[in-house]
Amino acid sequence: MKKKKKKGHNKKRIRKKKINEKKNNNESEKKNKKKLFGMKQRENEKAEEEKSINEKEKKPTDRRYFQCKIDMTFVEDSKALMFAI
User: Fold this and answer.
1) Tens-place pLDDT, residues 2-32
2) Where does this protein have compositionally biased stretches of type Basic residues (predicted)?
């Protein structure tokens, strides 16, 4: 009669391999996420810098710019008048 092979050992080894693969995949995914997050932060910083540069270079001839300035001065003057009266 032939001896039967013991079945448990190989299954355990396969299970350990799968667990290790999952751990390695998770670690590599975390590293990739960190890289992507860093890249997104750099892109956001560049975009903010460009916006600030564009705002500085914004021409004062823009109607909205003058409108805002006039409205603010009007509000401040009206408050001063209210307190004066």
Assistant:
1) 777 776 678 888 888 998 888 888 888 888 8
2) 1-20
